[in-house]
Amino acid sequence: MVYEMVEPIDKHARRRRQSIERLQEAALKVLARKNYSSIRVEDITEEAGMAKGSLYMYFKSKDDLYVKMIKKYFLDEIGKNADQFLVIQDSREALRWLVDLHFEPGFEFQYLDVFYRAVMDKSLLELIRPDLEEFIDRFLKLMERHFTAIGTENPSQRAYAMFVLLDALFNYRFLKLGGNWHWESARAMERLKSEVLRLLDLE
How far apart are CA 24 and CA 40, in angstroms? Predict the structure, then answer.
């Protein structure tokens, strides 16, 4: 009989991971209720049901917690969409896919409203600005590469225009519908998408 060697479960590492997740989820919930500058460490630990000083066992400060939390829940999640550009070989198809994505009723991710609250909060925005700018720059370069491949004039300008247009669309959907992704009608959605594709010469 052959016995497989099973690596023992590191209970300490598992508990540490669970505690970090509890603090990050608590930080999200607190941010949904309060401005960043008014949030206290004890607000987060109370929400997590943990001792006041426990946050410092896993994070250097409140700032450190929020920067890592936003990167985990939002920038990494949105970044998965950017990776799709590396999968789709046809550049026109890739750009159209990105437009289609923004019109999908299911295009959302958890805590979207908290993400918008974060980027609208001046003090928190300053903390996440480096990661946010890195993400935007990466996305713009990917779009520019695709526009270059299909022979677009001024591909960098077209990529920037597309980014701004889709960002405005994303904001419209969020602000108008409060995170509820049901449009007025499928016909209106199709008309708007056709207009966006026309403006970007992707018809």
Answer: 14
